[in-house]
Amino acid sequence: MDTLKILDTIKDGLLDSIPNIAKEQIQLEAHLKNDLGIDSLSSMFFLTYLEDHIHGFEVNADTIEARHFNTLQTIYDYVLSELKVNTSVSVH
């Protein structure tokens, strides 16, 4: 799965997991809690969605931290790092 497809899957996961958000709200710099309204329950749905839709991705309890849920960019970087994809280039 290429990095743009991964980013689209993450956006789809946010749309699927957080009620009352529009696709236009989901920008790389969007804060997941303050801008998009993610909470602990929707976070769990979101992570499950990612595991189900991104081949080879599993949430690692030893590596995931609260800071990964700051923005779309930080969760995207986390997913890429868990997949061992080069994260030196961000998609904007």
Automatic annotation (TrEMBL):
Residues 1-83 form the Carrier domain. It comes from the Bacteria. The lineage of its organism: Bacteria, Pseudomonadati, Bacteroidota, Flavobacteriia, Flavobacteriales. It comes from Aquimarina spongiae. Pfam families: PP-binding. Gene3D superfamilies: ACP-like (1.10.1200.10). Transmembrane segments: none annotated. This is Acyl carrier protein.
